[in-house]
Every structure is written in structure tokens, then in C-alpha cells.
Amino acid sequence: MHIIESGNVAAANGVKLAKVQVVAAYPITPQTPLTEKLSEFVDAGEMDAQYIPVESEHSALAVCIAASSAGSRTFTATSANGLLYMNEQLHWAAGARLPIVMCVVNRGIGAPWTVWNDHQDAISQRDTGWIQVYCSDHQQIIDTVLKAFYLAETVNVPVMVCYDGYILSHTYMPFDIPTQADVDKFLPPFKPAYALNPGQPANLNTVTLPDIRPDVRGNMAPGYMEIRHNLHTDMRNAIDVMADINKKFENVFGRNGNPYIEEYKCDDAEFVAICLGSLSYHLRDVVDILREEGISVGVMGLRLYRPFPDQAVRDALSARKGVIVFEKALSYGNQGALYADIKSALYAAENQPTVHNYILGLGGREIKTDQLVECLRNSCTQPETIDDTPQWIGLKL
Amino acid sequence: MNKDIIKIRWHGRGGQGAITAAKIVANAAFVSGYSGVVMAPTFGTERRGAPVLTSLKISKQKIYDLSPITEPDMVVVLDHLIVEEVDVASGLKPGGLIVINSSQHPDDFKFEGMKVATADVTHIASESGLPPGIVNTGIIGAFAKASGLIDMDILIRAIEDEFKGKHPQKNSGAARITFENTIVGGK
């Protein structure tokens, strides 16, 4: 059934359909309407879940960690400084290998305060050991929430489902809400390998020594470094697992798409723009304008950011003349984080396209179509005039 | 590129329900066969009573550009006093439509080269039994009459769906009476 609702309501419906058992969250703009909706679902008896209000985001994730350790399917959501306040628990959830799903409704970080959209919140948490998937519209939000639980519970790594604050969270558009029967066909119940149980006590995530050592049963147990290696290996495996899950999703729902990169007019494109989130859809209109001028350009939306699908990126980009990376985040003092990742993926390619980096839309600065047209046109027609530093769009110094 | 997009900008005051009005029209447009519908409120630091605006784009195809409308085809104004505070005709295409909740005649408004329509929604809504100041359903009737874009019966159903359990008939009634009492001025 199609409804017209906000991106936050799309996410909430995904969480409800996933039969999440524990929700713990603390309100923060622009995420708040999502968890408000979940509290309404629980209150109305439409969702058989514990909704646990907490006094901070740090506690929200701590509750999810405990509930997930006890074998519950758990969900939380946050934005911006709320995500940063979780930082210690983010690492804990990943290290403890708990399949928590969290929506990150992307918002710029204070100081100074901003409530508007950019990607600095999620990008700054890229090395916490969480999988990060980005959405471009409401259908992707609800579908990705469902896939995220499957993925998290298959590889035992928590997943962030990221979508643009306001631009998606508060914008209304049509999307299909799957039936519960179809979702149940797709998503099996959560069956943890071990769940906290008073009858079978255990000590979880205790101090590990620098070297491996026997566990209480006398078996050699992985040490800290092995545990880190395993997290990394399972993150890398998650790339292939995502493709399998996407296939299963298509079998049930009849819709799908590339799990790593969503392409538009890229087949014959000499130049390709690439970015995260809803901006890739905005850039489709820009590509159409430039195509009418005879410029051979396409756009790719990167869906999966961590683990980084470097092989897919290399395959998609290495035969191009130029790659133009648009980013709503910055690694201060260096360059865009995505830009660095893409250049790194292309290092192993035989052909090395020119790569440009545009920084835009920070703190909700309006992104105008004509600005995008001008920058992308410059990058395609006179690439040699643009150097290897971040170029700022819409900056008013 | 999808060039076949009808762009409608809604001006109201914080708390007045412009977003709900635009959402109702979005739903009715979708039911009428416009599969591409995007309604994007513009969020600032406004509080209740301050002028706010929301963008509604409708098209037969999916809409990819979610940015705010800068060049609307139509503008809907829920409070005539906003006309004195905000340039509601900003970017409006020549010959564009301005629908205003006002007891005045369209010709009393000076918008060069634009089509103006007015209806006294505040009065009609109150007569329809809605609490004073609830104008966001009545204005839909004025929009329907002046734009001719969406069938009134579909809008009525969309209003009653939105206000299920919250005086659906009074709200749809306000829209229908406003529809019948909207004055469309000359260009």
C-alpha cells in the first residue's frame, strides 16, 4: 500500500514491521518524529515492544546494548550531537558484536549549533565498527531498515541507516509499505548465538590480555587483537552478505537495486559524479541538464559507506575520464573523507581518472541546481583547472 | 529531467496548518494519478505565529529534486496579512496564480501580471462549525476552484481521511463552501 508520509514515518514503519522488541531513544531534532511515532505505535498496541525513555543518547544505546545482549531485536535513532554522545557505546556495541540497528538522521554538528542537514555526524563515526548505509528516498529508508536487521543479525555487526535530516526526514513523498506477511517471509526472527540467561550465567566482554589465553573451559579464546581482526573480517564479508540479502529482498518484494552503488546515466559516461544520500537524486536533474549540452556525464549514489565497497567503486569508476565527489562532510585539515576513500580505491586501478572534491551543503546551506550545474560542467570541460583540494560550493566569505 | 512539475508554494503562520493543507493536496494529487508528489516544509527558527512556507511539487513522474520551490506556478496564502510581511509573489511565473484567504475582492490586491483568487475562509470555516482560526481545510476549496487542478470530490475524501475522528465533515464542509464562494479575479 502506498502512503504519502515523511521519511521519519517511513523509518518508523520499517521498525514496526521488523517486529523490534526494544526501543530506547532520546529526542533530538530532526530524528524526534521517528521515535515519537514508535512510542505511539507501542502505546496503541500496534507494536509489541518495550519503549524505554532515557535521559541521554549514551543511555539509549546502553539500554539497546543490554537488551540486545539479552537476545532482543533492538532499535534506536539519533542525530548530530546525540550520535557523538553515544560514541563510547558505539564502539562497545560493535566490539560486543551486537546486531543493533540505528537510524542516523543526518544533521550538522555543533559548535556552533545547527539543526540542519549535513553528513559530518555519521562520517565522523565511520571508524566505530558500525556498518553505514545511506538512503536517497523514503522507499529506500523503509526497505533499508528491514534489510539492516537481516544484515546485522547475519554478520553480528550493528548497522546505521543514514538519511538526510529535513530533506528526507521531514519531506513527504509516496512510498510503499510492505505487508506484515511479506516482511515475515523476508525477515526471520532474531535468534542470537548466546543470550543473557540467569540459568546459564556468563561474563561478557571482560578484560582481555595482550595475548590469547584459555577460556574457562580450557579452550584457547581469541585475544583483543583477534577480536579486532574478526570484526574487520566480518565487516568485509558483509559486502557479499548484502548482495545475498538484496537478492532475497527482491524475491519477496519485487524491487531492488544495486546494494553498493545506484547509477544514473553512467553506462556511457566519461565523467561521473558520486555522493552519499539524497543529493545523488538531486544530481540526476543536473546530469540531464548537462547531457542536453552534450556533456557525457552520469551520477552514482553510494549506498554502502562502511564497509567500503572498494571493488565495486573501482569497477564503476576506473574507466572514466573524471570522477567528481560531492560531500556534505570534511576531514578537517585534509579533504573530504569519501574523496580520500575513492582515491584510495582507484589507486589499484590501471587507468587513473581525474578526481575532484566539492564540499557543499554544510549546516543546511541551500544547494542550488544552477551551482551544481556550473561546478559539474567545469569539472567535465576543464578538469585541469581544478586542483586536488576541496572546492567549496556556495561559500560566502 | 522531469520538467513537467507543477510547483505550489504555501504561505501560512506557524501552527496554522499549512503543512497539513499541502499534505492533503499531495494525497489527493497522488490519488488523481500524479505519481510524483513531494511536499517539503521549509524549516527555519520560526515559532508559532511567524510566517512559514512549504513547497508542494506534483508531477506524473517521480521527482528527484527535493529543494525548496523558488519559481512557483501557484501560491496559496492562508492569512492575508502575510501579504504585507512577505513577498508571496517572489519568483512566481508570469500569469501565475495567487490564492489568498481574504474578505477582499481579488482586484483589491495589486499583483502585476498575476491571477488572484480570494475567499473569506476565516468566516466560512467558522460558519461551518470549526473553531476560530482553523482555515487550512477551507483554503483547499479556494485552491481547487482557482486552480482547477484536482477534482473537488477527491480533495473532500482526502480531507476526511486526514481528519478522521477530528470533525471530518466540518472540515470537508468548510472546503466545499469555500469552493463555492471563491472569487477568481481577472489577469
Please, could you describe this protein's structure?
The complex is a heterodimer of chains A (397) and B (187). The longest helix of chain A is centred in the middle third of the chain and has 30 residues, at 224-253. Chain A has a seven-stranded mixed β-sheet with strand order 3-2-4-5-7-6-14, with helices on both faces. Chain A has a six-stranded mixed β-sheet with strand order 11-13-12-15-16-17, sandwiched between helices. Chain A has two domains: 2-186, Thiamin diphosphate (ThDP)-binding fold, Pyr/PP domains (Rossmann fold, 3-Layer(aba) Sandwich), CATH 3.40.50.970; 263-392, Rossmann fold, CATH 3.40.50.920. Chain A has 397 residues and is an alpha/beta fold. Chain A has 13 helices and 17 strands. In chain A, helix 1 packs parallel to helix 7, helix 3 packs parallel to helix 5 and helix 10 packs across helix 13. In chain A, strand 6 (131-134), helix 7 (138-155) and strand 7 form a beta-alpha-beta unit. Helix content of chain A is 39%, strand content 19%. Chain A has helices spanning 7-17, 32-43, 57-69, 80-85, 87-95, 120-123, 138-155, 180-186, 224-253, 279-292, 310-317, 337-346, 369-381, and strands at residues 2-6, 22-25, 50-53, 74-78, 101-106, 131-134, 159-164, 172-176, 213-214, 220-221, 261-264, 271-276, 297-302, 304-306, 322-327, 354-359, 391-392. By secondary structure, chain B is α/β, with parallel strands linked by helices. Chain B has one domain (5-184): Pyruvate-ferredoxin oxidoreductase, PFOR, domain III (Pyruvate-ferredoxin Oxidoreductase, domain 3), CATH 3.40.920.10. Helix content of chain B is 32%, strand content 21%. Chain B has six helices and seven strands. In chain B, strand 4, helix 2 (82-85) and strand 5 (97-101) form a beta-alpha-beta unit. In chain B, helix 5 packs antiparallel against helix 6 (168-180). Chain B is globular and about 45 Å long. The model of chain B has no long low-confidence stretch (mean pLDDT 93). Chains A and B meet through strand 8 and helix 10 of A and helix 1 and strand 2 of B.
